[in-house]
Write a structure and sequence with these properties.
Elements: E1 2-8, H1 12-18, E2 24-28, E3 37-41, H2 47-61, E4 67-72, E5 83-86, H3 109-123, H4 129-145, H5 173-189, H6 195-214, H7 221-241, H8 247-253, H9 257-271, E6 289-293, H10 299-320, E7 323-332, H11 346-353, E8 357-365, H12 373-378, E9 381-386, H13 392-399, H14 403-408, E10 414-419, E11 434-438
Parallel strand pairs: 3-8, 3-9, 4-6, 4-7, 5-6, 7-8
Antiparallel strand pairs: 1-2, 1-11, 9-10, 10-11
């Protein structure tokens, strides 16, 4: 693949070093040490146009099967010929974050649960410790109800060799909502049995008895005896209504009706977000470019969508195995919204690990200062389209530039690019670190 970034402007020393004054800045996938890009530019300097040009050039010049995923948070990266899907509260398609990776070493039910919980925590208000424990318990029970067991790796695949009346399927967020509501009703009312409600009455009667004793109430012995008899009756009812033998375990596991209700409310918010649906996005498999239009979603919903989608693409790349060419490109618009200092951030993980598996990232932001040093060091190609003067001091230090280099930039006309290439003595531009390029020449 190739992307022509324009004609270079060379100093006299650079002209002597390369022996040519008519050199173009050309990105070639076979020459770079990895396919990752980081594009920095403030509002109005041409980020969207540049992304479009890069994507179109990659699609037109690839010599291999290629899929380009464009995560378009503003809904303005129009690319001719791209297959597009809009994600909103009223659409019928979405993601399923509860799919289980069947790999015995990298996947499993416990890993799927942890990924789901950690992604929710990263994308918005964090779950409390008790909420997280209850959500984990709900998910474990839901997976078990769908024949996926934490400690049985042979159950982690859809085709586990067991014949059933109904085909085995992965649960989804709608299933999770129904299951949590069922558990809430069971905890609140006793479900189909009365065991949970009866045990709840036992606790209430015991507390009344204890309060009577502590307060040295003048209540007659008959009243206290009445409390005891009610407790005995409630416990007798509980014992008689036991069906599964797990009633007490469930009551303890789900902590309280209040905690379970708060988890249920959080799950319902996820279900109603427009991200999670039973239908998969109906992209055209014959289109090289898939554009995910995320502009109707809220900021937290965009975060959740991007994190879950990137995790899905990361897992798919790992399953695909080692690849000696780029077969998948992921474009992340406004990437700074999804970055943090967590080393386990999915974007940081992909930048460090996914190169060998045929995947490249193209990240766009208003400044390089939004990214960690490790991430900057993992990206082979950096393109500066024009950044606000506020960011100049830190940017010059990060990128080993001079202030006058940034001042040389004219938005939409000329910018700076650096490309870490493999050794290629035939390419004169490989001798230069930062390239001053005229985009329209």
């Amino acid at each position: 693949m190739e992307v022509d970034l324009g004609r270079l402007e060379l100093s006299a020393n650079q002209q002597r070093a390369v022996g040519n004054n008519n050199i173009r800045s050309v990105w070639r996938s076979q020459d770079v040490i990895n396919g990752h890009w980081l594009i920095a530019g403030g509002s109005g300097v041409g980020k969207t146009h540049t992304i479009r040009k890069i994507v179109e050039s990659m699609a037109a010049t690839t010599q291999h099967d290629l899929r380009i995923h464009v995560l378009d948070v503003h809904g303005d990266i129009y690319i001719p010929g791209a297959s597009e899907v809009l994600f909103s509260e009223s659409t019928t398609v979405g993601l399923n974050p509860l799919i289980v990776d069947p790999d015995r070493h990298t996947g499993g039910v416990r890993k799927a649960i942890q990924n789901f919980i950690s992604t929710i925590n990263k994308s918005g208000r964090q779950l409390g410790d008790r909420q997280e424990a209850v959500l984990r318990a709900v998910l474990e029970d839901l997976y078990q109800a769908n024949h996926f067991y934490v400690d049985k790796p042979e159950s982690w695949t859809l085709n586990d060799g067991i014949r059933r009346k109904f085909p085995k399927k992965y649960p989804n967020v709608e299933d999770l909502s129904r299951w949590a509501y069922f558990k809430y009703k069971q905890l609140y009312m006793g479900g189909n049995s009365k065991s949970a409600a009866a045990l709840d009455r036992v606790n209430k009667e015991a507390m009344k008895i204890q309060r009577q004793c502590k307060e040295n109430s003048a209540e007659s012995d008959d009243t206290l005896a009445d409390f005891k008899n009610k407790a005995i009756d409630a416990y007798t009812e509980y014992v008689s209504s036991i069906n599964t033998g797990r009633e007490l375990e469930d009551l303890l596991k789900y902590d309280s009706k209040t905690t379970l209700k708060s988890v249920l409310d959080r799950i319902d918010n996820l279900k109603n977000s427009g991200i999670f649906r039973n239908e998969e996005p109906n992209f055209n498999p014959n289109s090289t470019v898939w554009r995910y239009k995320l502009n109707p979603l809220s900021a937290d919903e965009k975060k959740m969508f991007v994190f879950f989608k990137l995790k899905e693409l990361y897992d798919n790349a790992m399953k695909r195995g080692l690849c000696d060419h780029i077969c998948e490109v992921i474009v992340i618009d406004e990437c700074n919204r999804f970055m943090d200092n967590d080393p386990d951030n999915i974007i940081s993980l992909m930048a460090n690990e996914i190169r060998k598996f045929g995947t490249a990232l193209i990240c766009a932001s208003q400044s390089f200062t939004h990214f960690t040093e490790d991430f900057l060091g993992s990206v082979a190609t950096k393109l500066v389209l024009g950044i606000d003067e506020y960011y100049w001091p830190k940017t010059t230090k990060q990128l080993q530039l001079k202030t006058e280099n940034l001042a040389w930039i004219i938005p939409r006309e000329r910018g700076l690019v650096t490309i870490k290439r493999k050794t290629n003595p035939l390419d004169p531009a490989s001798k230069l670190k930062w390239l001053f390029t005229h985009f329209n020449k």
